[in-house]
Amino acid sequence: MALKELILKYAPVAVQDAGISLYNTHLYRQRHRGQYKAWQRYYQKFEQADAEEISREAARRQALFLRWATEKSPWYAAHRNKALHEFPILEKEQLLANMDRIRTLDESQGIVSLTGGTTGASMKVIYHPEDMQERFALKDHFRARYGYRLGRKVAWFSGKSLVRPADLESGRVWRDDHINKIRFFSTFHIGPRHFDAYWRALQDFQPDYIVGFPSSVLDLCALAQERGLNYQGRVDTFFPTAETVLPMHREQIPAMLGCRVVDQYAASEGAPFILQCPEGSLHIHPLTGIFEVVDENMRPAREGEILVTPFTTRGTPLIRYRIGDRISLAPDDYRCPCGSCFPVVRHIDGRSADFVWSPENGKVNLGNISNCTKDAEGIICFQIVQEEPDAVDVSVVANERFTPEQRGRFLHAMTQRLGQGVRIRLDQVESIPREPSGKFRIVKNRLAQDAMRPLPQEG
Ligand SMILES: [Zn+2]
């Protein structure tokens, strides 16, 4: 057993807290060494630049990145001097199977990042240390616009399983980094049984910021609301990570905690950044990479799947990588009131695999599905699983306000979206398990591709 696991399993809580503090401080130093400061100045400078300067710099970065990839990565060697659109699309399976030919560094030369793959296979991506410093410089620069810096109190809700059974009994559902003032909450145990412990710990800590899974923070807020509780204090900003932010997150979390919700998009295998500005728009950052939005036939579109070419993936170059997420773009002539010339994304639709298939209506996306709870009271969370083209299983966690009438409204809303031809089996449950990564999936589509055939058109 590794030392880290031994400590997590057997050491007293105080020792664990100290270990976590030291480990974080080590990570912080690793990410903030070297070129970090220079990159912060770089992003500061280009925030005020005009459109022409930006596009010149974006073109320069793109050329540098493609040259690096074709010179250093055996996988891309055959594509020297090609324009971006001439490169082949890189599928996730190809990345997994050919990692050793794609990467340009050994594990010992870079920083290894593990991603929970969607199919269960985990992906190991190697970052060039300087690229990691650039990514953190931008992330910190972005959060600093909202007053965030290391040392302000932060509550963290992400996929770490850091709590033992004995801790659950005693209500110690978190670990503290006392040096950096971060409280890490376990996201695996938020539910009616341990709610009091979570709520007390959050209330006592009085964080300025919250970072983490929106589904976890929402669960906590929904349980508090159900119990008629008010949060004593005020959280400044919530920075969601890893999951798609839905209207229900943007409504219910600020209503309970008094915070702003400020979204970002940056996948851990390395994607370019999309960052929310103070006016609430989501801006693509053109100096972090290229987003191509494509339709089902891989042709340019305003709304659809994205192919990403992130400039900070020199360790494992990703070119036109089909990352599996969808976005929709705002009109080209849209000017955000914040004054930035960076392109605006209307919304981030999340994983392209997160939809329910309807023989009548085609793909019904996650945002649309999550809106089913709008007219029904008492639902705390739900999950919809599809294994057959004409039926879905819906699990609902709800309180006593979820009466037969509300249940009827919820089913009606669901039928409107999925069509009359889809049978809905609704099951009220105590709790719904999260994924091994700690994330919560509202939609689980297990249909085979060939099961998704539209109904023949009449007449
Ligand atoms: Zn803006």
UniProtKB/TrEMBL annotation:
Listed InterPro entries: ANL_N_sf, CapK_Type1_Caps_Biosynth
Keyword Ligase attached: yes
Extent of the signal sequence: none
SUPFAM superfamilies: Acetyl-CoA synthetase-like
Protein name: Phenylacetate-CoA ligase
GO MF annotation terms: ligase activity
Lineage start: Bacteria, Pseudomonadati, Pseudomonadota, Betaproteobacteria, Burkholderiales
Record carries keyword Cytoplasm: no
Species annotation: Pusillimonas noertemannii
Domain of life the protein comes from: Bacteria
Keywords from the UniProt entry: Ligase
